[in-house]
Amino acid sequence: MKVIIDTNGFMIPVQFKVDIFGELGRLGYDEFVVPQAVVNELKSLVKKYRGESRTAAKVGLSLSDRCTLVEGAGIADDVILQLALDMDAAVLTNDVGLVKRLNDADVSVVRLRQKNRLDIM
């Protein structure tokens, strides 16, 4: 099964000490996708942030190399929603606004639960 990983999904390992790839595998996901818009967002966060947030963005950027990169320019949330519909993929995100849009479009959402594991919502 495919899952698209949002920017904040890539930052979970540093912020919450959760192995996102291990957890996604446990949930049955074996294809990881990252839109170019998310990679661009992570790069800008590395420049913008300091401290733990910067480290989280750097680690996220590094983790994105383990995913299949797909083209998609523009606002990351819009790109993610369209890709999820086109690819019939779930999305890993904790972005409340994006979660609402994904739920409205009947797209499976993977979220952080109890700050220590991922779960399908």
The whole-angstrom Rg is 13 Å
Number of discrete helical segments: 6
Largest sheet: 6 strands, mixed
Enumerate the spans where pLDDT stays under 50 for 5 or more consecutive residues. none
Distance between the termini: 15 Å
Q: How would you spell out the order of helices and strands?
A: EHHEHHEHEHEE
Helix content: 40-55%
The side-by-side strand order for the widest beta sheet comes to: 3-2-1-4-5-6
Strand content: 15-25%
Q: What is the general shape? A: globular
Q: Got a strand count? A: 6
Average pLDDT for all residues: 96
Helix/strand/pairing category = alpha/beta
Structural features, described:
GO terms for molecular function: DNA binding. Keywords: DNA-binding. InterPro entries: PIN-like_dom_sf, PIN_9. It holds the Pfam family PIN_9. 53% of the residues lie in helices and 20% in strands. It is α/β, with parallel strands linked by helices and 121 residues long. A hairpin with a 3-residue loop joins strand 5 and strand 6. Helix 1 crosses helix 4 and helix 3 runs antiparallel to helix 4. It is globular.
SSE diagram, text form:
Elements: E1 2-5, H1 7-16, H2 20-26, E2 31-35, H3 36-48, H4 51-63, E3 68-70, H5 76-87, E4 90-92, H6 96-104, E5 109-113, E6 117-120
Protein name: DNA-binding protein
Keywords: DNA-binding
InterPro entries: PIN-like_dom_sf, PIN_9
TL;DR?
One of its GO terms (molecular function) is DNA binding. This protein is an alpha/beta fold and 121 residues long.
Protein traits:
121 residues, alpha/beta, six-stranded mixed β-sheet, 6 helices, DNA binding, PIN_9, DNA-binding protein, PIN-like_dom_sf
